Amino acid sequence: MNNIVIYSTKPMPELEALLFEIDDADIRTVDINQMKDYAIINPSLIIVENIEAAQNALMTNKFPCPILFIGKARRDFTVRAEGFDFIENIQNKDELIIRVNALLKIKAIKEKLERVSTTDDLTGLHNRKYLQERLEEEISRSRRYGTKLSCILFDLDYFKVVNDMFGYEWGDILLKNIANKLTAMARKEDIVTRYGDEEFLLVLPNTSEDNAFLFGERFRREVEKMEFIPAGEEEAHKVTISAGISTYPCMPDVDEDANTVIRYAEHALYNAKHRGRNKIIQFSQMNLEM
User: Would you identify the CATH topology of the domain 2-116?
Assistant: First the structure.
């Protein structure tokens, strides 16, 4: 649904009526003095009826959507937006629809590019680029509010054997099955990412290490119960997974960032592998035993 918001100093029923031809669009007119609160409405496109009245909001905000200004084209002010255009005569219905659709297409293309750049092609999960950005944000939030943040790094055991025995196609099917299962079990606020070829990293905001361990164990058991039967095989191929858990803050008096927290989870994962696989190891417990 395209959310088109008209910021105006007066009601704009004629403009609203003209815009009803836009497919899949919700159209509303809002007082221009509320333009600074645009984020509450989450617009796909902003239409500004009075440029002068909007100047303060335009100078102090960066808009994550295109803007269409009603009036003559001007170069004497700065617009920080996904794109912008001018239309002098809104009564020219064809021109209005063409310009609105063009700006909405710009918005759609940029959103698609953002999804592509932050999404893993095979599994549809977020990728490492997205993980890095979001994990830094979540660590900052944990630091500010004094809450726990846990990371679980999962790695499929003997995944190379699956590729060697059954081919990469069945390896991909297994990875997608694991990704779907992990997504289904994760909470809405959790961040599920494909971290490596057969590695998945789950970020659990506001979650203690013990609770992260309970989730990890539950997921490990679900994977262990999977029936993965490649074509031509009569019996299921046994699938297991190992994981390492780190929880921010991890170490006292250490300046920790996203890379640090992930590195601790990696250490715990390696420890799980060395202990025979099909295990969940907590970084803090590993340190106690070293």
Answer: Rossmann fold (3.40.50)
Strand partners of residue 245: 152, 282
Please list the residue range(s) of the chain that carry CATH number 3.30.70.270.
128-289
Q: Give pLDDT tens digits for 183-219.
A: 999 999 999 999 999 999 999 999 999 999 999 999 9
Tokens 């099917």, residue?
173
Nearest-Å Rg of the Cα atoms of the chain is 25
Annotated catalytic residues are 198
The answer, yes or no, to whether the previous bond of 249 is cis (omega within 30 of 0) is yes
pLDDT tens-digit readout, 148-183:
999 999 999 999 999 999 999 999 999 999 999 999
Residue span(s) of the chain under CATH 3.40.50.2300 come to 2-116
Picking from 152, 129, 128, 132, the residue whose alpha carbon sits closest to that of residue 241 is: 152
Q: What is the CATH number of domain 128-289?
A: 3.30.70.270
Question: What tokens appear for 278 in the block?
Answer: 């099909």
Strand order in the sheet with 191-194: 191-194, 199-205, 149-156, 241-248, 280-282
Question: What is the spatial distance between Cα 267 and Cα 243, in angstroms, rounded to a whole number?
Answer: 10
Q: 157-165 — which CB contacts under 8 Å span 24+ positions?
A: 157/239, 157/240, 157/241, 157/242, 157/273, 157/277, 157/278, 158/240, 158/277, 159/197, 159/198, 162/237, 165/230, 165/237
The model's pTM: 0.71
**242: which 2 tokens?**
């190992």
